Amino acid sequence: MSIWWSLHLRREAASVPLARRFLLGTMESAGVDPDISFDLSLALSEACANAVEHGGDAGFPDAWEEPSATAGGQYRVTAYLDGEKCRIEVADSGPGFPARRVLHDAAQQEHAAKRQHDTQLPEPQYAQHPPLTAEDGRGLCLIEQLADHVHFGNRPGHGGAVVSFDKVLKWREGALLMVS
pTM here? Predict the structure, then answer.
């Protein structure tokens, strides 16, 4: 059995805890280990907060809004839980990410070492770490630390950013979706 859901949320601060609670409730019902649930809910909160703050009007109408909808925009959260992992995607209709993400030095060196053994590994995208004195800008880096795989991209043809991440699940004893 698997669980899949998608939420279309207004770009309002109140939508962030709503999405987080929805995810936590789903994982609690399914029997996901609480530590994994916490990591994924924190990563989701960061991705949603970015969509609320940066996912606004990029000079074109929001592809998910009705023409009569109020200005302010929407964003979409999609989650998929199966027996092995949880995959989450947060997509907005803002300006999107710059054409190329700046690679973090330590992560780049680690990946280069792995590529020596497997030349088929794709080049990863890493968020640039903000200065230590910055008051914000750590969300994407935090998502990278909490998830197993992360992808930052742009919605083709529509504009807007897409943050997708996944994590291998651990289960409580007697979990509903436990791998058989």
Answer: 0.75
Would you state the structure tokens that stand for residue 94, as one six-digit string?
Answer: 């803002």
CB 25 within 8 A of CB 37: no
Instruction: Residue 150: count other Cβ atoms within 10 Å of its Cβ.
Output: 22
In order, the DSSP letters of 33-49 are -HHHHHHHHHHHHHHHH
Characterize 45-83 residue by residue with b for buried, 16 or more Cβ atoms within 10 angstroms of its Cβ, and e for exposed. bbbbbbbbebbbebeeebebbeeeeeeebbbbbebebee
Compute the distance between CA of residue 75 and CA of residue 84 in angstroms, rounded to an integer. Answer: 27
pLDDT at site 103: 36
Amino acid at 122: P
CA count, 13 A, side-chain hemisphere, 38: 3
| Residue ranges in the chain modelled with pLDDT below 70 | 57-72, 99-137, 177-180
What's phi and psi for 131, nearest 5 deg? Answer: -60, 155
- pLDDT tens for 110-136 read 556 665 666 665 555 555 565 655 556
Structure tokens at 109: 């060196």
- Please state the separation of Cα 45 from the chain's center in Å: 9
